[in-house]
Amino acid sequence: MLENKLNLCLVPLEIIWGEKKKNLESLKNIFKKINPETDIVVLPETFSTGFPSSEMQKDIVNLAESDNGKTISLIKELSKEYNVAVAGSIIGKKDENLLNRSFFIQPDGNCFYSAKKHLFSPGGEHKIFKAGDQKLNLIYKGWKISMIVCYDLRFPVWCRNKKNEYDLLIAVANWPVSRIDTWDTLLKARAIENSSYVCGVNCRGIDDLGGDYNGSSHVFNYKGKDLVVDVNGDGVLYAGLSMQRLKNFRDKFPSWKDADEFQLI
Q1: What is the pLDDT of residues 215-243, one digit of tens each?
Q2: 9, 20, 45, 76: which is the annotated catalytic residue?
């Protein structure tokens, strides 16, 4: 039987660019305050380091980690200790390749990984990382979940919810204030066009090139309504999802049945 409710906690972490130790310490402190009824904690893209700019390229190899590195090891510990799943991305290393590596860690120890498909060429990301070729897809507490990273959100074919393959799309990002209206709009559009919940978590802070990030984060439902609330006034956001309401909407308004067939080459 499907679980009817899913409680999300969105953490628009203030990143200190390139300072992994400080960012991980901040995260540990935040976890101490998270609502115990939370099912999934969602962190920004490359939350432990910030998104690597061209000025940081020489340091990227030193920032990169394997799946057994200190960042993922800490996430596994926090997931188990607080009994929550944790989603985000890191600068990862696998088989000598550098990846913008998305992860979904469950408290029972199960781990799911993928890599960002659309690398941000205006920032030179394609010169550093190897692109992924699969979305991260999984089932957690009866919910079908898919996950993308930042720039992926601009590409609707990649995000398309074919035959309701997901109930929740998670997007993690370092999306600057200069383009924040685009981020907010695309999250809402993806929720409406795919008849699903969409959760987007952005970071806060100033990057090493002076770029500003305001932490704009949302959970839109299938009608485009933003569900997030700041319960404690500390910038950590919460949203409750209902499988029954999603199912009722899809049954009443089954636009997904009329979607165009396509295949990614």
Answers
A1: 999 999 999 999 999 988 899 999 999 99
A2: 45
